[in-house]
Amino acid sequence: MRRALDAAAEAASAGEVPVGAALVWQGEVIAVAANAPRALCDPTAHAEIRVIRAAAALLGRERLETADLWVTLEPCAMCAGAIAHARIARLYYAAGDPKGGAVEHGPCLYAQATMHHRPEVYAGIGEAEAADLLRDFFRARRG
């Protein structure tokens, strides 16, 4: 989670919503990414999507069945869907997202009978630091 939190802090410094992700394959961090929709002019450039793309390209495969994904914020519906399509084994996330999350909030995608893959989900790891990054970022934007 440390690597994901550091990526989130870098995103905040770049004016992006502070979300970071790290993908672990066979015990090694092989990809780290931060949110970059503004910088890349790409609404799909969420940290989770970017890290999955980087890991899949590095490994030369579209399925990451044994991977662990660490992310600083509960994934949205788009990212939760990508996690399922990539067949990520385990999802660890820091802060819950009552407004935009889709794992344990909102549509709770992995609880749907039609979901073809459900990763193991572990929430709350690094939650305080991730929540502080987000609160500080949005407070600065509003104030």
Key phrases:
143 residues, alpha/beta, 5 helices
Question: Explain this structure to me?
Answer:
With 143 residues, the chain is of the alpha/beta class. Strand 1 (20-25) and strand 2 (28-34) form a beta hairpin. Strands 2-1-3-4-5 form a five-stranded mixed beta sheet. The longest helix is centred in the last third of the chain and has 16 residues, at 127-142. Helix 1 (2-13) runs parallel beside helix 5 (127-142). 38% of the residues lie in helices and 20% in strands. The protein contains five helices and five strands. The radius of gyration is 14 Å and the shape is globular.
Question: Brief description of this entry?
Answer:
The protein is of the alpha/beta class and 143 residues long. The chain is built from five helices and five strands.
Instruction: Give the number of helices.
Output: 5
The total of beta strands comes to 5
Question: Can you give the mean pLDDT?
Answer: 97
Query: Biggest sheet: strands, sense, closure?
Result: 5 strands, mixed
* Distance between the ends: 29 Å
The coarse silhouette is globular
Protein structure class: alpha/beta
What is the topology, as strand order, of the major beta sheet?
2-1-3-4-5
Rg value: 14 Å
* Low-confidence segments: none
Fraction in beta strands? 15-25%
Helical proportion?
25-40%
Q: Can you write the helix and strand succession as a string?
A: HEEHHEHEEH
The protein's oligomeric status is: single chain
